[in-house]
Fold this protein.
Amino acid sequence: MTDNSPEPRAEGQPPKVERGGLWGLFLGLAGLLFPPYGVVLSVFGVIQGFRARRAARAHSSQAPGALLSVALGVVGIVVSAAMVSVLFVYQDQVTDFRDCSARAHTVSTQKECDSAWESDTGLPPVIIGG
């Protein structure tokens, strides 16, 4: 990343704004869009948020979006971890569901696959991208 640290301020001049929090916010949002692979982006969002807060404190300035980027990054990590754990715990059911979905050519046969997944696991098929 580029160095987005604020410039030192002169007397009477308003404080500069640390823009690293906005980058962290972008990374955290991107991590939420691509679970479970977005865990890497979410981790970078958390790191960038903490770096922006530290730089803002060191320069007595503000870091808008820094805390929100940390929060979104943590949520992205939790969502990705939950999805990966479902894939490991229900590995056989996931394989059966994906095979069934690959053979389903109509809406009614896909609904049969969805209902089989729900009866086997008790989870909605949205969790595995169905």
Notes: The chain has five helices and no strands. The two ends are 36 Å apart (CA to CA). The mean pLDDT is 84. The chain has two domains: 1-88, 90-130.
